[in-house]
């Protein structure tokens, strides 16, 4: 077995060890399909034996391009974003990209810092799931950076770029219409922050469904909160303090709905019987939660795939027209309503 040489192993050393040209070894580290599997295996074995590590940053500098993509999400603990991440990875890996992940925890300052860090690492483009409240300064910096960017899940109204999302308005209208048809006319809206474009679109659907049924929206039944289980629990407590508590609740997302139903059980209330609960996203846990949650399918994996495709197209041609992809929602009725 060959001894590892001291210092950083070069690609030329790998090529010599494998008995191929440096050009062939270079094609292999860049995942070129033009090299035979046998040659690829031989070179990869030499890389492993010599301890070769591909210097991607240096390669990016030489080619003036990058195979690394930045993905910024708000909360990795939210299973919605886990599914979105799966879609992004699936598509970008097909195209030979590596994903650099960052989490903002819905903080504009953290989002700004992550964007700066990704640019310092010379990412080829960014998929951004924006925070609820984007500062004008952050928006202006993104414009000035002139880097290929696709926004997903939430739109930034003043930022002109490609976007992928779900028809929130239609999805919520379907959910509220379902509750109204079940006989509910005091429906609370729990969770989310009104600064967010996703909240505004959901609320438009909430209002539309009421208006079409000849009902008025009771603003005192709108309770904002963090889009977490804890946020849902606190929002439910606030709604139950009302002189006329709601008979049904629409929750900003499934995590809020899980918190609501857990809190209901703690209070001796039965979700789906004492109060109907509807969520939004249809994460995997929704079908197995107790009771199974009625919710709107938001297709996070498909959003991830589409966002990755748009970014790949943008990187290839940054002059093409902006695109908006809005997916159609679907209502899944289960025992919680």
Short overview:
With 337 residues, this protein is an alpha/beta fold. The chain contains twelve helices and twelve strands.
- Strand content bin: 15-25%
State the name of the first-level CATH class of the largest domain.
Alpha Beta
The span between the termini is: 67 Å
Strand arrangement in the largest pleated sheet = 2-1-3-4-5-11
Overall outline: elongated
Broad structural category: alpha/beta
- For the secondary structure, the number of strands is 12
Instruction: Pick out the low-confidence regions.
Output: 1-6
The helicity comes to: 40-55%
Largest sheet: 6 strands, parallel
Q: How many domains make up the coordinates?
A: 3
CATH topology of the largest domain: Rossmann fold
Q: From N to C, what is the helix and strand string?
A: HHHHEHEHEHEEHEHEHEHEEHEE
CATH superfamily of the largest domain: Response regulator
Rg over CA atoms: 25 Å
Please identify, by name, the CATH architecture of the largest domain.
Answer: 3-Layer(aba) Sandwich
Summed up, the helix count is 12
Mean pLDDT: 90
Keywords: DNA-binding, Repressor, Transcription, Transcription regulation
Protein name: LacI family transcriptional regulator
InterPro entries: HTH_LacI (IPR000843), Lambda_DNA-bd_dom_sf (IPR010982), Peripla_BP/Lac1_sug-bd_dom (IPR001761), Peripla_BP_I (IPR028082)
GO molecular function: DNA-binding transcription factor activity; transcription cis-regulatory region binding
């Amino acid at each position: 077995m060959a001894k590892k040489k001291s210092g950083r192993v070069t690609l030329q050393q790998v090529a010599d060890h494998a008995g191929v040209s440096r050009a062939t070894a270079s094609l292999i580290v860049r995942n070129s399909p033009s090299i035979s599997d046998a040659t690829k295996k031989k070179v990869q074995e030499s890389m492993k034996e010599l301890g070769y590590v591909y210097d991607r940053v240096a390669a990016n500098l030489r080619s003036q391009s990058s195979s690394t993509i930045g993905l910024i999400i708000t909360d990795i603990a939210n299973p919605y974003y886990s599914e979105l991440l799966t879609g992004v990875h699936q598509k970008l890996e097909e195209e030979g990209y590596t994903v650099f992940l960052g989490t903002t925890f819905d903080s504009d300052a953290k989002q700004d810092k992550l964007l700066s860090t990704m640019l310092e690492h010379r990412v080829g483009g960014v998929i951004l799931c924006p925070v609820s409240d984007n500062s004008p300064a952050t928006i202006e910096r993104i414009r000035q950076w002139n880097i290929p960017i696709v926004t997903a899940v939430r739109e930034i109204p003043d930022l002109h770029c490609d976007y992928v999302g779900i028809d929130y308005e239609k999805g919520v209208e379907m959910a509220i219409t379902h509750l109204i048809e079940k006989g509910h006319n005091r429906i609370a809206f729990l969770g989310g922050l009104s600064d967010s474009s996703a909240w505004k679109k959901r609320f438009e659907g909430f209002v539309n469904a009421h208006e079409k049924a000849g009902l008025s929206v009771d603003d005192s039944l709108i309770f904002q909160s963090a889009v977490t289980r804890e946020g849902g629990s606190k929002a439910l407590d606030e709604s139950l303090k009302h002189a006329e508590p709601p008979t049904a609740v629409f929750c900003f997302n499934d995590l809020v709905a899980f918190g609501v139903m857990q809190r209901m059980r703690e209070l001796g209330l039965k979700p789906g019987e004492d109060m109907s609960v509807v969520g939004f996203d249809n994460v995997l846990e929704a079908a197995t939660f107790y009771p199974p949650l009625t919710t709107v399918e938001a297709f996070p994996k498909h959003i991830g795939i589409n966002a990755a495709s748009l970014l790949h197209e943008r990187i290839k041609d940054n002059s093409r027209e902006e695109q908006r992809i809005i997916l159609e929602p679907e209502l899944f009725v289960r025992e919680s309503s």
